[in-house]
């Protein structure tokens, strides 16, 4: 695939390529945990692979299987996953002026707008390196994430009861791993804790899956109230 | 199982539409301070809620079992800067071992 706006590599590109490939390998590899948890939660290997191929945003994929594994309605799972995917829209707004894509390129490129490809683009000082970082990270993760999802899904299916291996606990750890880098302010920690507390409180009184959406929404409202009172920085 | 496929298709559409919208929509339409603030808060609230449900919920309501110490191990390892995959594996192993010996 040709990267829009780039024809040949220049010497200064080497560090960007190396960094991007490093991130792609590290992130792609944890597709194995998604694949294993997905099939251990009752999804088929095909369903796990379709999620990685076509949803391709890790947090949303984990959210979907988290809700479904907890016995929630798959539509509730889709709502939770889509809400969590809303941040990709804001990444796109930041990336659009950097990538300067033609309309057709936009449709294909949108698929690889994720946390890591965005992070590897916006930290660059030149537009050329931003594009290079974005495409190499995004395409690299796409290839490896799908490969490792398949490996993990086959392994998860072979393992049997997920609880024996603690795979049910691994989902919580995966979510905590996604949340951890975001807990950079007191407000962020309060909002995350509020989401957890509201959801836990709702578990005994609502249908599975509902506590996640309502708990998350309550925490966002609390965060808005606190932020407007202190007018502090959310991130 | 067809229920699951419905959820998968909706997830695919929802996530892709948001990605395309970000690249396509003029910045001024989405860059309202309130929209941006909400978008920064959503992952915090949702991930917090997802963790609580994943670790505490069972078919019958709230349960304290091996998943909670496993989450504690995950938090400890994240605090020590351990990468994602070994952290998740150690957390799963904690739950597995606790179940083996209790």
Biggest chain pair interface: A-B, 104 and 72 residues
- SS-based structural class of chain A? mainly alpha
Radius of gyration of chain B: 19 Å
What structural category do the secondary elements of chain B indicate? mainly alpha
Brief digest:
Chain A has 235 residues and is mainly α.
Which key terms come to mind for this protein?
heterodimer; A: 235 residues; mainly alpha; 2 domains; 74% helix; 0% strand; globular; B: 102 residues; two-stranded antiparallel ribbon; 5 helices; 4% strand; elongated
Describe the structure.
- The complex is a heterodimer of chains A (235) and B (102).
- With 235 residues, chain A is mostly helical.
- Chain A has 12 helices and no strands.
- In chain A, helix 11 packs antiparallel against helix 12.
- Chain B has 102 residues and is mostly helical.
- In chain B, 80% of the residues lie in helices and 4% in strands.
- In chain B, helix 4 runs antiparallel to helix 5.
- The two termini of chain B are 34 Å apart.
- In chain B, 44% of the residues are buried.
- The mean pLDDT of chain B is 90.
- Classes of the chains: A mainly alpha (235), B mainly alpha (102).
- At the A-B interface, helix 3, helix 4, helix 5, helix 6 and helix 7 of A face helix 1, helix 3, strand 2, helix 4 and helix 5 of B.
List the helices and strands and how they pair.
The complex is a heterodimer of chains A (235) and B (102).
Chain A lengths: L13 H16 L1 H10 L4 H11 L2 H12 L4 H11 L1 H14 L3 H7 L5 H8 L4 H33 L7 H13 L6 H17 L7 H21 L5
Helix pairs in contact in A: 1-9, 2-3, 2-4, 2-9, 2-10, 3-9, 4-5, 4-10, 6-8, 8-9, 11-12
Chain B lengths: L1 H23 L2 H4 L2 H24 E2 L2 E2 L4 H13 L4 H18 L1
Antiparallel strand pairs in B: 1-2
Helix pairs in contact in B: 4-5
